[in-house]
Amino acid sequence: MKRSELRHKIQNSSLGFLAGYVDTLGFVALFGLFTAHVTGNFVLIGAELANPQGGSLLLKILAFPAFVFGVVFTRLMVAVLLKFNLHALWYAYILQLVLLIAFMVAGTMASPIGSEPTLMAEIAGIIGSTAMGTHSAAGRLLLSHLAPTAMMTGNVTQLVIDSVDVLRGAADENIKRRCIKFLWPVVAFAIGAIGAAFAYQFAGFYALLLPICILLYLMYIERGAMHKRKNMPKGVAKS
């Protein structure tokens, strides 16, 4: 396996784990808020409007523009970075890292979380949604060769279709590779989601230190790839 292929698999699995972890932690900690799952919040908003049961409606409504802001800011940032031929993925990781640290700090300041959202809890939810908007946008813009890491419905659908073709003997090598490509982020997302639910019980918002460390590691391996590309002789293909 080429080093670039290994790096891509590590990126895809790590970012899938991160998305599942942060989304679940937000859901468990902040009154059922999906920080990375916009459609899920729409469903919860509709249910809350039809049958009001708490004061978390405003938080779920604010999460949508926060997510959109994360996407917009990332798009503009990446456009500027690419215009000046800078390594956009490196800076996208930094942006996610800063936002996740801010999410952890705001969540810790809001703790203990009571039965109703406080102002600091709402700020934490807004920051978390912005962070995952950044995550989703960076994936679409800079990692389009990988399987999506925050929206698993499409991944699972494609994985099942390809798996059926593999089992019935109708899959060529491209389909088999695609099946493996979609498998790892789905599994990683599920593990992250389960892990976050338990981690929050034991560590509260400090449980976000794990995805923060994952981003630091991704920045480290991306830094290595950046140096490798810079040191390649001219005319050699860069991956």
Short description:
This protein is mostly helical and 239 residues long. It is built from 8 helices and no strands.
Notes on the protein architecture:
The structure is a single chain. By secondary structure, this protein is an all-alpha fold. The chain has one domain (3-146, 195-231). It is built from eight helices and no strands. The longest helix has 31 residues, at 173-203. The mean pLDDT is 90.
Tell me the series of helices and strands, N- to C-terminal: HHHHHHHH
Biggest beta sheet summary: none
Tally of structural domains: 1
Mean pLDDT: 90
Portion in helices = over 70%
SSE-based structural type = mainly alpha
Report the total helices: 8
Name the beta content range. under 5%
Quantity of strands, as a count: 0
Head-to-tail CA distance between termini: 13 Å
Overall body shape: globular
Rg, please? 19 Å
Spans where pLDDT lies below 50 across 5 or more residues: none
